[in-house]
Design a protein that fits this description.
The complex is a heterodimer of chains A (about 850) and B (about 600). Chain A is mainly alpha-helical and about 850 residues long. Among the domains of chain A are: about 250 residues, no CATH class; about 80 residues, no CATH class. Chain A contains 30 helices and 13 strands. In chain A, strand 1 and strand 2 form a beta hairpin. Chain A is globular. Chain B has about 600 residues and is mainly alpha-helical. Chain B has a domain of about 230 residues. In chain B, a hairpin with a 2-residue loop joins strand 3 and strand 4. In chain B, helix 16 runs parallel beside helix 22. Chain B is globular. The chains are: A mainly alpha (about 850), B mainly alpha (about 600). The interface between A and B is large, with 88 and 88 residues.
Chain lengths: ~850, ~600
């Protein structure tokens, strides 16, 4: 079978199997074994099948597109890789006399870009990016795109459900299904309590008694299956509309899972908070979608063919980075014309020939683009889409929902709120990268930088083991965003993959600890190393991975590679853009804080002697069904960053799908001042690379050392530090007062406005209506009085009837009004009849 | 008469769909059926609505009943189908003119479907059972009549027929403040119908079918294909104008370059077209309803019994949107274009205002009622975005998207709002209160019901995969090309919608314990209730996952209308070809050879 049909088939199946599992458990969950116990098997089998299919898809991919050292920016031999790629590209250049040819069957297209005139350099007048290097070639990555079915089509507009598959799609499928499989297995053990009636100690009944309910084992796996389906839907999505569809669906799955213990008020509140805060991000995303849709009429990533007309329809990537212009970013014609609507109207006025208008507009577009039309639209589109990512990936200012989301069961925290769903925002930035301008990327970098710093500082003072990990997740997502923002496309997505492994590992370990101790509070733990060796050692691996531990320049855990890549790219960016040097400081400082709070967590939990003997005595290692996934994930947390010199590895795989036109340094001076977006390969340069690696090592070591001094061998008392820090400590303990601030700034005014509007309805509008009714009643009363006195005096017999009517009117019996109304209708019809008879000829004449 | 019936292949299907409920109502009101036999009355009503639903399915989905026969709907044909044309009041050219197209047919099926469910939901009604069901069936006839009428006078008659049963159904079978709510509903709607009547008369007396070409006269069914030659000759020979109530003909006249509606100035130096548009618009937006003429809705809903709320939200509100789409825009395109800002503006205001108001409610049903105001705002916005074709290129795609989205939103809201009201009713039947502060823990007590209810509320929330999403996203995306500001505000509404719906779900269904009275009455959902809720949830999913099931009906007709009006904007409104077209147009009509007419007539007859 052709790879172009095989991959969508494999991944499509992998995507739909969890949906089938969801439907099966929805209808037959209670009948699946005793208390629905087999629901876990159904869901696990489903996600495991998806994993197998994803791995097969990865094999198919690698078989057809073996990673080459040339396109692979591995850590150690960056320079070699770069020169290799130059050689390869030069070879293309040599036989470039042939016109650019797209490979048949799919979107594979390789050719080089035209020489860019150095004169345009940094002129800033174009609204586009220009390459620093005058002469180089660009290669479009391989991707397969197509549509399964249409949601809506009308005219040239189409909204579809389809696929866009490149190496990151395949990679993400493997990562998501692998982690999800581990977590399904783990959850079968962790959620064991739900097989029996549960007494929820955290629920306070007004009667004061204990709260008991039926177990909900199968419901958990039902929601988990739906989540996997939704998440994979985002990954495979072929257009932004489909991303948005599954974006919302993962949001609602998250709502179900956070609110799993919905009897707890805190859980249902956290679930609502998560969804509503995410909707704030989606509001921005909708604006981004509208900006693109309104101007371009498509939301497809890749190019496609209109099934109705057979016309080719360029996708967003092609529109923003046209093949003909060497994949260099430019404002697409549609957005230029949209922004220049007034000028278009000027051209169109007095013209009856549509074709002529279109030709004139097409001719005028380059000039308008030169004049800067549409830049802002592209900026708004990028920032808008990023807003959605801010919500989903819990970035500042919308990060507040994620720590609360820890109300959900721990396997959910591991899968949904650390490894996959929250990574969807980063994934979308990576997917959408070709359309993001350097200005948007700068915004992304700053948001990421601020987030990673704020979240890391809060994590330092948190005592709830899951909340530490939650803030750590927020912080690490900030790292990824920053990496993408400073041009580290591979670095950001690489960290996404490695983080998925070690963070899910860390969460599952924390779940194992909570399972054993029945508390989240680290101040009651300590000395668990002896009782829970599997958990302790695997968690240590996770901690080492997240701080990027390794032997500099030799080997390290997965985080070592991805974090170094981020550091190097941030350093390079800071060198090229000294104004934004603070981004590098955020990264380096964040690395130090990360190392500190992670080891604070580990030391407080596992090292030393037990703080609470009652808990320590009852603690026990978790069953094998829970520790096995820990070991598997620990292995991946170690090796996920490794790569062979041949380019086989996560980074090499990612490099295959590097967006066309991003392999060079580009400079712009458009909206947010002068920005140079460095080529990622340049960060492998010797001086950058060495500095970054050493910085990473030093900061991490310092962080661990400080944590050891405070919590392992208490030379420095944490309490003393807290007292010395004073207000700063209080500020951090209260999480920068962000929740309180939002409550005052947004929640309360919204509710107040809602009450105001409701009041307007009742008092103003209804008051007016009732007032009119009252006035009508008064007039009716006068009418009645007139009837009584005047008419009665004149005609006695008729008077009695009228008098009765008057009484009735005074009381305003509803029936009477109806009669009036009938009079109006009959009267109008009568007028109409008369008018027709009398004036027919004159009106017609 | 018989010959005419044979010609009108759809006479019986359409007539039965409209009048069967009324006939059964008349039968029920006879003393034949003893008052005490309440079960019999209920079953007869349910059976009637089911038969009518099957009839409408026979019309709309012929594949279910074998090969497509005459009178059944042909997918993909954008024109008016199954036209029934019989003379009624000949002195004024008033006809019994019925027909369905892609805009009205889905609404007809929605009406018959929801009426059937509402009939089943009427089981708990125990007061004056017979009178209730008679009025209920009359109401169904009225609603269906409005959707299939193509004669403006007939339309108006059905509009009024619908009004009275609704008034009684709220006023007699409603809650404690039923009389206030009923009279409020009645006066609001009556104000609208009086204004509409004025507009109808204005348009009637200004219309002249003589202005139409022969082709147009046949296409708009002013003349029957069989007798086209004679009828056209009579029209051409008439001295003076030949007035019409034919909606299709009025639309054709309104879109003429020399439209008499636009040419006539009535008051304040403003054209008759604009006045008629405004009067009709007010009449229709009261039904939609939009802010600020919406306050009848919360009261009516809160007081109305559950099945009547379902009908009210599911169908009656759609009449407004339908009227704007079917009548306002095609007949008064010039006014529609220049007042598009008004339609879009009130739509967006309603969206935001309704959402905020919903957020503040403590009465469950009132909250759902305000959510209707908010959701119907999308319909207005989608219908109004037509100036997307103005200004720059004459691209009608985005406007068509908005109108298609609005149509979808109407149908989806028909499902989701009826479902939401039903779900509220299920609770109210048990505990007899609707105070959001006094619920909680329902999920633990009624898990199946709660699962279905949450699904329906999610459809209202606009969650992808459920019916509410498609319409909202299409309308919102299309609005950007009309106005950036309105688009951003409409996008903002998604936050408020999530807030009020999730908050309500939390307060009612989640939590550990029920905080209100009559806790013992919270028994699991009954089979009867399940059989009403399940189809609604099922359709909410089907329409959300496969919106083409509806779009295949809607899109051809909507696109044709939008394209026609977009061409009209270019050719007539902007005047580039105005004089040219007018010059071509004027003398030709009366000189056509009769042979050509025969051809035309035959072609039309064959169709």
């Amino acid at each position: 079978m052709e790879i172009a049909t095989l991959l969508p088939l494999l991944l499509g199946l992998a995507w739909l199997i969890p949906l089938a599992s969801f439907v099966a458990i929805l209808f037959f969950g209670t009948r699946m074994g005793p208390h629905g116990k087999s629901a876990a098997n159904v869901a696990t089998a489903a996600i495991a099948s998806s994993l197998v299919l994803s791995v097969v898809a990865l094999g198919v991919w690698l078989g057809h597109h073996p990673p080459s050292a040339a396109s692979h920016g591995d850590h150690g031999d960056g320079h070699a890789a770069r020169s290799d790629s130059m050689v390869r590209l030069t070879a293309f250049r040599a036989d470039s006399s042939a016109p650019p040819a797209a490979a048949s069957g799919h979107d594979e297209a390789e050719h080089h870009e035209d020489h860019q005139d150095e004169d345009h350099h940094d002129s800033g007048a174009h609204g586009d990016a220009h390459p620093h290097e005058g002469e180089h070639a660009a290669v479009a990555p391989v991707a397969y795109a197509g549509d399964w079915y249409t949601l809506y089509s009308g005219g040239a507009l189409r909204l579809t459900i389809g696929w866009y598959i490149d190496s990151i799609t395949v990679l993400m499928f493997v990562v998501v299904t692998l982690i999800a499989t581990c977590i399904h297995v783990y959850a079968a053990g962790y959620m064991h309590d739900e097989l029996h009636p549960v007494t929820d100690a955290e629920v306070q009944l007004t009667s004061g008694g204990p709260f008991s309910r039926e177990g909900r084992f199968h419901r958990f796996f039902q929601a988990l299956s739906l989540f996997c389906f939704s998440m994979l839907g985002i990954v495979i999505a072929g257009n932004l509309a489909m991303v948005f569809v599954f974006w919302e669906l993962v949001g609602i799955c998250s709502w179900f899972l956070i609110g799993f213990y919905f009897e707890r008020h805190s859980a249902s509140t956290a679930a609502n908070k998560a969804f509503i805060v995410n909707r704030v991000g989606d509001f921005g995303m909708l604006i981004g979608l509208m900006a693109l849709w309104g101007g371009l009429g498509t939301l497809h990533f890749g190019s496609s063919v209109d099934p109705a007309t057979g016309d080719p329809q360029p996708g967003l990537f092609e529109l923003v980075r046209p093949t003909a212009h060497g994949y260099q970013q430019e404002v697409p014609d549609g957005l230029v014309a949209f922004a220049a609507a007034a000028d278009v109207a000027g051209l169109a006025s007095g013209q009856s020939d549509q074709q002529a208008v279109r030709r004139e507009v097409a001719a005028a577009v380059p000039g308008w683009r030169e004049a800067g039309y549409g830049r802002w639209l592209l900026f708004i589109a990028g920032v808008g889409i990023f807003c959605g990512c801010v919500g989903k990936s819990a970035q500042v200012p919308l990060f507040v929902w994620l720590p609360d989301a820890m109300e959900g069961p721990t396997p959910v925290s591991a899968l949904v709120h650390s490894a996959t769903m929250v990574a969807a925002g980063v994934y979308l930035v990576g997917r959408f990268y070709p359309v993001l301008t350097p200005d948007v990327l700068l915004v992304i970098a700053y948001v990421g930088g601020i987030t990673l710093f704020i979240a890391a500082t809060i994590a330092v003072t948190a005592n709830d083991i899951k909340r530490v990990l939650a803030y750590s997740t927020v912080s690490q997502l900030g790292y990824m965003m920053l990496a993408l923002g400073v041009g580290g496309w591979v670095a950001g997505l690489f960290h996404l993959v490695t983080h998925a492994f070690f963070k899910s590992l860390l969460f599952l370990c924390s779940g194992s600890v909570i399972h054993a101790c029945h508390t989240n509070d680290m101040r009651k733990m300590g000395g668990l190393l002896k009782v829970m060796p599997y958990t302790a050692w695997t968690m240590l691996i996770g901690c080492l991975a997240i701080i990027g531990a390794g032997v500099p320049f030799v080997i390290g855990l997965s985080g070592y590679y991805s974090k170094d890549a981020i550091l190097a790219q941030a350093l390079l960016y800071a060198r090229l853009n000294p104004a934004h040097g603070i981004l590098y400081l955020a990264v380096a400082g964040g690395a130090f804080i990360t190392a500190f709070y992670m080891f604070r967590l580990w030391f407080m939990t596992f090292a030393g002697s037990p703080r609470d003997h009652h808990i320590a005595e009852h603690a026990h290692e978790s069953p094998r069904v829970m520790t096995m996934p820990l070991v598997v994930l620990a292995v991946f947390a170690v090796i996920a960053g490794w790569g062979l010199p041949s380019g086989f590895g996560v980074a090499g795989l990612l490099e295959q799908s590097r967006p066309a036109g991003t392999a060079t340094t580009v400079s712009t001076d458009v909206i947010l001042g002068a920005i140079s977006l460095p080529a990622e390969h340049d960060s492998h340069a010797e001086d950058i690379h060495v500095t970054a690696t050493l910085t990473a090592f030093a900061t991490a070591a310092a962080g661990v050392l400080l944590a050891a001094l405070m919590y392992l061998r208490p030379l420095v008392s944490p309490a003393v530090v807290a007292r010395l820090a004073g207000p700063a400590y209080t500020f951090l303990v209260n999480r920068w007062y962000v929740d309180e601030l939002y409550h005052i700034l947004f929640v309360m005014p919204t509710l107040r406005l809602a009450r105001l509007i409701s009041g307007i309805d009742r008092r103003l509008i209804d008051g007016l209506i009732n007032g009119i009714a009252w006035a009508a009643r008064q007039i009716a009363g006068i009418d009645a009085w007139f009837d009584r006195t005047v008419v009665d005096g004149l005609v006695n017999a008729a008077g009695r009837v009228t008098w009765n009517t008057g009484i009735e009117m005074r009381r305003l019996q509803t029936g009477r009004l109806r009669q009036y109304v009938m009079f109006i209708v009959v009267g109008t019809v009568a007028i109409f009849v008369l008018a027709t008879l009398l004036f027919r000829t004159s009106l017609a004449g | 008469m018989n010959a005419a019936v044979v010609e009108n292949a759809a006479f019986w299907p359409l007539t039965l769909i409209v009048f069967l409920p009324a006939v059964v109502a008349a039968f029920l009101s006879l003393p034949l059926v003893p008052k005490a036999r309440e079960e019999v009355v209920r079953w007869i009503t349910l059976g009637t609505t089911a038969v009518v639903f099957l009839l409408s399915l026979w019309l709309a989905v012929p594949q279910l009943f074998g090969p497509v026969g005459p009178g059944q709907f042909v997918l993909g044909n954008p024109d008016m189908q199954g036209v029934v044309k019989l003379p009624w009041i000949e002195a004024f050219g008033i006809e019994y003119l019925l027909g369905v197209d892609g805009i009205s047919l889905p609404l007809v099926v929605l009406t018959t479907f929801l009426s059937m469910l509402a009939a089943a939901a009427s089981w708990p009604i125990s007061k004056h059972v017979k009178a209730y069901h008679v009025l209920f069936l009359l109401l169904e006839s009225g609603m269906l009549g409005v959707f299939v009428s193509l004669d403006f006078f007939l339309f108006y008659v059905f509009w009024e027929v619908m009004l009275l049963p609704m008034y009684f159904l709220i006023g007699i079978w409603g809650g404690p403040r039923r009389e206030y709510a009923a009279i409020k509903f009645f006066l609001y709607t009556l104000l609208g119908s009086v204004l509409m009547l004025i507009a109808i008369l204005m348009l009637y007396f200004t219309s002249d079918v003589g202005l139409l070409s022969d082709e147009q006269l046949i296409a708009t069914h002013v003349v029957s294909p069989a007798t086209a030659v004679d009828e056209i000759a009579a029209i051409r020979a008439a001295d003076g104008a030949v007035h019409t109530f034919n909606l299709m003909a009025l639309a054709a006249i309104g879109q003429l370059p020399n439209s008499p509606f636009a040419a006539t100035t009535v008051w304040l130096d403003t054209s008759l077209e604009t006045w008629a548009f405004l009067l009709l618009l007010i009449g229709f937006v009261i039904k939609v309803p939009v802010v600020p003429v919406h306050t009848w809705l919360p009261d009516a809903h809160v007081e109305a019994p559950t099945p009547i709320s379902m009908i009210l939200a599911g169908i009656l509100l759609k009449l407004g949107g339908y009227g704007i789409l079917r009548i306002c825009y095609p007949i008064c395109p010039g006014a529609g274009l220049s007042l598009a800002w008004l339609v879009c503006g009130v739509g967006v205001v309603s969206m935001v205002y309704g959402a905020f108001a919903a957020l503040a409610q403590t009465d469950f049903k009132r909250m759902v009622a305000y959510s209707s105001v908010s959701h119907m705002g999308y319909v207005m916005l989608g219908l109004g975005v037509w100036s997307a074709v103005d200004g720059q290129e004459y691209r009608w795609d985005f406007w068509a998207q908005g109108v298609n989205g609005a149509m979808f939103q109407m149908l989806a809201h028909g499902i989701s709002s009826a479902g939401m009201f039903f779900m509220v009713g299920v609770l109210y039947d048990r505990v007899h209160h609707r105070n959001l502060q006094e619920f909680g823990g329902i999920f633990g007590k009624m898990p199946v019901y709660s699962g279905l209810a949450i699904a329906v509320f999610f459809a209202g929330l606009g969650l992808p995969g459920l019916c509410g999403f498609i319409g909202e996203v299409l309308v919102t995306l299309s609005s950007w090309n009309y106005s950036r500001v309105l688009a951003v505000i409409s996008a903002f509404t998604v936050i408020l919608t999530a807030a009020y719906i999730l908050w309500a779900i939390q307060r009612v269904y989640l939590g550990a314990e029920y905080r209100g009275p009559h806790e013992e009455a919270l028994t699991p959902i009954t089979p009867r209730e399940l059989s009403i809720a399940t189809p609604l949830v099922f359709l909410a999913i089907v329409f959300g996952v496969a919106p083409q099931t509806l779009f295949q009906y809607v899109t051809p007709t909507v696109n044709q209308q939008v394209e026609t009006l977009a061409d009209w904007t270019r050719d007539v409104h902007d005047g580039t070809r105005k004089l040219l077209v007018a010059a071509e147009h004027a003398p030709a009509d009366s000189l056509r050879p009769a042979a050509r007419l025969h051809d035309l007539a035959e072609r039309e007859g064959a169709r």
